[in-house]
Design the sequence.
C-alpha cells in the first residue's frame, strides 16, 4: 500500500467520524436521576451503589465506548427530576436516562424521553403503567401487582380470610391495593377496609389503630422502601403482632436494608417479593459479598439489584449494537434480553418492555445472627399481572 492510499483511508475515516452523529462519539453518556437526599434517599443510595458496583466489576468501557454516568439527585421530587432531565438531555446530550427512585419522577420524565427519543431505564419505581407512559421506557425493577397478587394467593391458602389494607396513597400503593383486592376477593377473601396513608408524612399510627379495631386476620401493607422501618416500629408499638393480626404484603415492608433494625418481633412475617439478600445462588452470594465490601455498613436490597441489572441491560445492549447509541437499535437489543440477576433469572418482555421475574414467598428468620427474608416458594417468570389483565380484555 502506498502512502497516498493510506492517507486517503485515514481521511475517509475522519469524514466518517465527522458525519456519524451518534456512532462517532467515544463516550456513552447515561443521565442518572435518583433520590440521594431527602426522606427517600435510601432508594437512590441503594440503586446507585448497585450501578457503581456493576461498573467496578465490568469496567467503564463497552464495545470501545466509555460509559459515563452523569449523576443527579432529584430528592424524589417530580419537578426537580423533570428539570434535571431537561438539563441532561439538552446540555449534557445524554444518550440514555436511568434511575427513577419513585413513580412520580418516572411519570414526570417519561414524556421528555419520548420527545428526545432516548431510552429511559427504570431501575426502582414500580407502578405498572410507567412503561406505558413512553415507548422508550424499559424497566429492571418490578411492578407492585407482581408481588401483591401472589401474596393474596398465599394468604388464601393459609387461612387468611379477612384483611384490612394500608397503602401509601400514590401510584404503587394504589396498584398494590387493587391487585391484592382483585386476587383476594376472587378467591373468596374479604377486604374489610382499604386505608391510604399520605406519602409525605409517614405517621401510620391512626391507620394501624383503625385496622386493629376492625380485627382482621391480617393487615396487607405497601409502604415504599425507606418507610418500612417506621411502619414496622409503629405496628410493634401498638402490639398488633401480639394481637394475632399478621402482617402481609409485597416485600417492601421487610426491606433488606432496614430489616436488621426492626427487632425480633418481625420474625415470622411472610411477604412476596422479587429479591432477598439471602437468595441462595452463587451469583447472589458473590453480589452480596462484593456489595458489602464496597459499601461498608450496608446490605443490598431490591433497589440495589434494580440498579445493578439496569447497568447490565445498558452494557449488554451496547455490546449487541457494537457501541451504536441509536435509540431504536438499543431498544431492539433490550427487548427480550434475558440474564441471571442476583435475584434469579429475569428477562425484558419484548412486547411491554417490562420485567419478567420470579416472585418468591419468604419468611423473616434469623440466620447467622441477622434477620433475613428466607425464600420458601417460587412463582416463576411472573409477568406484570396488570398488563396481562388489560390484554385479556
Ligand atoms: C415507587 O414510587 O414506584 C416505589 C418506591 C419504593 C418502593 C416501591 C415503589 O419500595
Sequence:
Amino acid at each position: 500500500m502506498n502512502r497516498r492510499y493510506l492517507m486517503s483511508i485515514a481521511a475517509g475515516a475522519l469524514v466518517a467520524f465527522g458525519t456519524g452523529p451518534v456512532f462517532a462519539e467515544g463516550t456513552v453518556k447515561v443521565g442518572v436521576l435518583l433520590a440521594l437526599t431527602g426522606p427517600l434517599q435510601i432508594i437512590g443510595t441503594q440503586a446507585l451503589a448497585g450501578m457503581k458496583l456493576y461498573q467496578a466489576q465490568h469496567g467503564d468501557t463497552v464495545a470501545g465506548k466509555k460509559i459515563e454516568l452523569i449523576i443527579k439527585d432529584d430528592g424524589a421530587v417530580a419537578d426537580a427530576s423533570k428539570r434535571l432531565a431537561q438539563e441532561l438531555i439538552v446540555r449534557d446530550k445524554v444518550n440514555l436516562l436511568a434511575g427513577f427512585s419513585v413513580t412520580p419522577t418516572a411519570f414526570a420524565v417519561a414524556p421528555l424521553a419520548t420527545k428526545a427519543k432516548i431510552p429511559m431505564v427504570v431501575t426502582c419505581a414500580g407502578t405498572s403503567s410507567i412503561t406505558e407512559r413512553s415507548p422508550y421506557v424499559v424497566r429492571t425493577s418490578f411492578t407492585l401487582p407482581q408481588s401483591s397478587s401472589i401474596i393474596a394467593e398465599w394468604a388464601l391458602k393459609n387461612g387468611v380470610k379477612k384483611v384490612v389494607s394500608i397503602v401509601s396513597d400514590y401510584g404503587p400503593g394504589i396498584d398494590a391495593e387493587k391487585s391484592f383486592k382483585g386476587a383476594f376477593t376472587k378467591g373468596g377473601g374479604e377486604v374489610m377496609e382499604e386505608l391510604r396513608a399520605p406519602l409525605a408524612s409517614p405517621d401510620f399510627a391512626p391507620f394501624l389503630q383503625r385496622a386493629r379495631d376492625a380485627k382482621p386476620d391480617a393487615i396487607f401493607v405497601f409502604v415504599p422502601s425507606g418507610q418500612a422501618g417506621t411502619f414496622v416500629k409503629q405496628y410493634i408499638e401498638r402490639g398488633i403482632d401480639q394481637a394475632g393480626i399478621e402482617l402481609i404484603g409485597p416485600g417492601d415492608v421487610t426491606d433488606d436494608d432496614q430489616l436488621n433494625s426492626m427487632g425480633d418481633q418481625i420474625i415470622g412475617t411472610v411477604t412476596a417479593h422479587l429479591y432477598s439478600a439471602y437468595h441462595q445462588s452463587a451469583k447472589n452470594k458473590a453480589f452480596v459479598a462484593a456489595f458489602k465490601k464496597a459499601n461498608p455498613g450496608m446490605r443490598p436490597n431490591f433497589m440495589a439489584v434494580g440498579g445493578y441489572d439496569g447497568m447490565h441491560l445498558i452494557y449488554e445492549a451496547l455490546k449487541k449494537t457494537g457501541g451504536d447509541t441509536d435509540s431504536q437499535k438499543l431498544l431492539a437489543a433490550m427487548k427480550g434480553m434475558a440474564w441471571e440477576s442476583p435475584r434469579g433469572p429475569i428477562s425484558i418482555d419484548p412486547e411491554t418492555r417490562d420485567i419478567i421475574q420470579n416472585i418468591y414467598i419468604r419468611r423473616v428468620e434469623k440466620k447467622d445472627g441477622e434477620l433475613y427474608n428466607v425464600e420458601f416458594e417460587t412463582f416463576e417468570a411472573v409477568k406484570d399481572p396488570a398488563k396481562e389483565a388489560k390484554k385479556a380484555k
Notes: The two ends are 67 Å apart (CA to CA).
